[in-house]
Amino acid sequence: MTTVQRVLNFSAGPAVLPVPVLEEIQRDMLGLPGVGMSILEVSHRSKAFEEILARTEADIRALAGVPAHYKLLFLQGGASTQFSMVPMNLLSPGGAADYIDSGSWAEKAYKEAKKIGNAKLAASSKADTYSHLPLQSELALTPNADYVHMTSNNTIEGTEYKVLPDVGDVPLVSDTSSNMFSKPIDVARHGLIYAGAQKNLGPSGVTLVIIREDLLTRSLAKKATLPTMLNYQVHAENTSLYNTPPSFSIYVVGLVMKWLLANGGLAAMAATNERKAGKLYAEIDRSGFYRGTAKKEDRSLMNVTFRLATEELEKKFVKESTAAGLDGLKGHRSVGGMRASIYNAFPESGVDTLVAFMREFERTNG
């Protein structure tokens, strides 16, 4: 077998996957053990796939401590489709929903919800270029709102919630696409959680939704009017098999869950992620040659954003880092600068390599 020289993948997504997972996919691609067919060929109605789906759900429940009264849905369309599905299903006639605008994707979710119904802006840090998260004291929450929407980690701007906002008894809805399962998560504090898989969970193509069962009654009430494929209740009662699901993506998510459990679970993953990010932030703060863009108290463990003194220097940094096998460090096109995405599967040795590159770049360009 030809040995592949892998670069260090700092991309924000689709992102790095665990090497043992990639190797298992490679081993089983021609035929799943005991099945004789590739996962790409197996019917979603077969016993083999039903077992994969059930095992994946069971491992997610074990990993995150998901209470029994929550349903797990494996959907398509990415988090962007959830921007519409959430208000379509959860907004009641005459009701309102509050949105915390903490970053570019949070703003997109708010704008989509406004197309559906009465979405209100509870707080926003846009005026400060999303360099920090809105404070609890800044939240203007609607009494008896249908839900409050938040984005737990802002991929573009590099900020992350350390403590969930207090929304009282109102269901909290969280887009956790870029930090899902990077640390323990209190599912019971949420009404609904959703995440595109392509950061920490697996490949693109599947979106995980965890929804409290009582909220499904809102979807049930809209069954006659809501498009079938956009109704949570339909997917729940069909165990995510109403139509052909993204079977390969679900299979890989299952392998990643197995990998997470084998490596100590979410508490162990949090410790590793804190250590990895700590090394990188220490280098950013060391001399002033690099400048972090997010306020220190809100810095993300997943997406580390920083700038250099000039755009020309940043272009040189990207060019030379790419040539050195450090891929994907260019910041999002909307904000520029640098971004190192260091998700669960990103190796700590890769962070050490980046830190060494940054020191040498500073030495030759400072």
Describe this protein's structure:
The chain has 366 residues and is α/β, with parallel strands linked by helices.
Briefly characterize the structure.
The chain is α/β, with parallel strands linked by helices.
Helix and strand layout, with pairings?
Layout: E1 8-9, H1 19-28, H2 47-64, E2 70-75, H3 78-90, E3 97-101, H4 104-116, E4 119-124, E5 147-151, E6 153-154, E7 159-160, E8 172-175, E9 192-196, E10 207-212, H5 216-221, H6 232-237, H7 247-262, H8 265-287, E11 291-292, E12 303-307, H9 311-323, E13 326-327, E14 338-341, H10 348-365
Parallel strand pairs: 1-13, 3-4, 3-5, 5-8, 8-9
Antiparallel strand pairs: 2-10, 6-7, 9-10, 11-12, 12-14
Radius of gyration equals: 21 Å
Beta fraction of the residues?
15-25%
> Regarding CATH, which class of the largest domain?
Alpha Beta
Question: What is the tally of helical segments?
Answer: 10
What CATH architecture of the largest domain would you give? 3-Layer(aba) Sandwich
Question: What's the number of structural domains?
Answer: 2
Outline type: globular
Distance between the termini: 44 Å
Largest sheet: 7 strands, mixed
Largest sheet strand order = 2-10-9-8-5-3-4
Which consecutive residue ranges, at least 5 long each, have pLDDT under 50?
none
Structural class: alpha/beta
CATH superfamily of the largest domain: Type I PLP-dependent aspartate aminotransferase-like (Major domain)
Helix content: 25-40%
Mean pLDDT: 97
